[in-house]
Amino acid sequence: MRMIVLTGATVLAMAGSLGVASSASAQKGPAAPAATGAAMTAVAPPPVCPVLNFSVKNRTNGAKVNVLFNVTNQGPGAASNMKITGIACTSGFAYSPMPGLLALPFTIPTVPTLGAGSTVAGFNGFFSRSSGPLNAGYSCTITSSSGPKGQCVGNKVVLIP
């Protein structure tokens, strides 16, 4: 069974066309104003999210591994408010920033907006390893967000040779 719910002016119009006295027309005095529909509020379309790609520009081994990452916006939209929200690595390596530098989560310290197809030297990441040589290769999954409210989220696996 299908039920249709009618409100306001629609009910009054149907009652009048059926010859039924509505409660508004049976009242004495000035006529009640016609009911109007609820105000429609425009909903903003979802943002056009960019795809951020991270690659290794160079690597230096010292007390910690220092990796300079490039950031490329593969489009389709521009990337703004770019943040790194997580870094998880393999082979015993862990993200471990130098004191006072780029603690997670952090804003990528580059240009405020990165257009589609653009690449910049994005950030230095520092990594430590609890045991084994620091010159070993490993990979990290970088989780990022962008957009005015951080609503565009992505993950990228980066091989660090």
Structural class: mainly beta
Uncertain regions spanning at least 5 consecutive residues? 1-29
Annotation, overall tally of beta strands: 10
Largest sheet, spatial ordering of strands: 1-2-8-5
- Kindly state the mean pLDDT as a whole number? 82
Morphology call = elongated
Output the radius of gyration.
29 Å
Helix content: under 10%
Count, helices: 2
Q: What's the helix-strand series?
A: HHEEEEEEEEEE
Query: In this structure, how is the largest beta sheet organized?
Result: 4 strands, antiparallel
Give the end-to-end Cα distance, rounded to a whole number of Å: 66 Å
Percentage of residues in strands: 35-45%
Keywords:
single chain, 161 residues, mainly beta, four-stranded antiparallel β-sheet, 2 helices, 8% helix, 40% strand, elongated, disordered N terminus
Describe the structure concisely.
With 161 residues, this protein is mainly beta.
Element layout with pairings:
Elements: H1 9-17, H2 23-26, E1 52-61, E2 65-73, E3 79-80, E4 83-89, E5 93-95, E6 106-107, E7 113-114, E8 119-129, E9 138-146, E10 152-160
Antiparallel strand pairs: 1-2, 2-8, 3-7, 4-6, 4-9, 5-8, 9-10
Question: Can you walk through the features of this model?
Answer:
The protein has two helices and ten strands, in the order H-H-E-E-E-E-E-E-E-E-E-E. Mean pLDDT is 82; it is low at 1-29. With 161 residues, it is mostly beta strands. The strands form three sheets. A four-stranded antiparallel sheet has the order 1-2-8-5, with no helix packed on it.
